[in-house]
Amino acid sequence: MPTPDVDADDRVQAVVKALDILEALWQAEGGGVTELTERTGLAKSTVHAHLTTLRSKGYVVQDGDEYRLSLRFLSFGEHVKHAQPLYEASEQPIADLADRTGERVLCSTEQHGLGTVIRACNGERSVTSSIDVGTPTYLHCSAGGKAMLAHFDDEAVDQIVSSWGLPAFTDKTITDWETLTAELESIRETGIAYNSGEYVHGVSAVGAPILDSDGTVYGAVTVAGPRHRLESEWDHDELHDQLLSAANTIEVNLLFAD
Predict the structure, then answer these.
(1) Rounded to whole angstroms, how far apart are CA atoms 163 and 187?
(2) Where in the chain is the domain with CATH 1.10.10.10?
(3) 84-255: what CATH class?
(4) Residue range 23-48, pLDDT digits in tens
(5) Is the Cα dihedral 210, 214, 216, 218 positive or negative?
(6) Fewest CB atoms less than 10 Å from the CB: which of 106, 186, 197, 251?
(7) Where in the chain is the domain with CATH 3.30.450.40?
(8) CB distance 175 to 15 below 8 Å
(9) Residue 119 pLDDT > 80, yes or no?
(10) Are 137 and 113 in contact (CB under 8 A)?
(11) Where is each IclR-ED domain found (predicted)?
(12) Which are the contacts of 15, defined by CB distance < 8 A and separation ≥ 6?
């Protein structure tokens, strides 16, 4: 997913092509030259040359005619994860919230105008989800994303929406500026954000921001689950209290982090 705030003229095309191939390998969970050519739109000779180079550097492994990402990326992922103070600070609060609610709990942060999950924990009744650690998401259609957007200044929100737009993922996704700004105002007043099947049909979520004492947005914590089950509990003070308590505990952990 490219960042729209970088001028195309400033990009090194050979690097762009290599990264396009790596992303295609990741999305397809491996593939051959022909499949990668179709996915990237690059010439076969270009794909083959880049794969050969990436394999020589240890970033790609080859098994017959199939290529896949190498385990070398594990070290990158672990480094990036642990470099985020939010990752360590959220460990126990996220686990406790998943245990209390029985649902899937996520801790996410914003980068390049998108939300990215940095920690996930399943409760005893969690459902399978395509959103996991490292998954980028649009902010306007997720509970955690809207919780973060609500506490950014107007200029930052304008920049994010201008860059990424308000694409629809379901018929419930907010796709107009007026509706979004009204909802963000409500979130600022209540401290709670909702996602009513706006990103994935049948899956809803409730989220709260993780803030510094000066209002700086660190991220958000989200409880997600089947729409019919989670929305029946939305008005329960207990769920709100548990969510806000988890967010506050993470805030305190960040305050006293080394």
Answers:
(1) 22
(2) 13-73
(3) alpha beta
(4) 888 888 888 898 899 898 999 999 89
(5) negative
(6) 186
(7) 84-255
(8) no
(9) yes
(10) no
(11) 72-256
(12) none
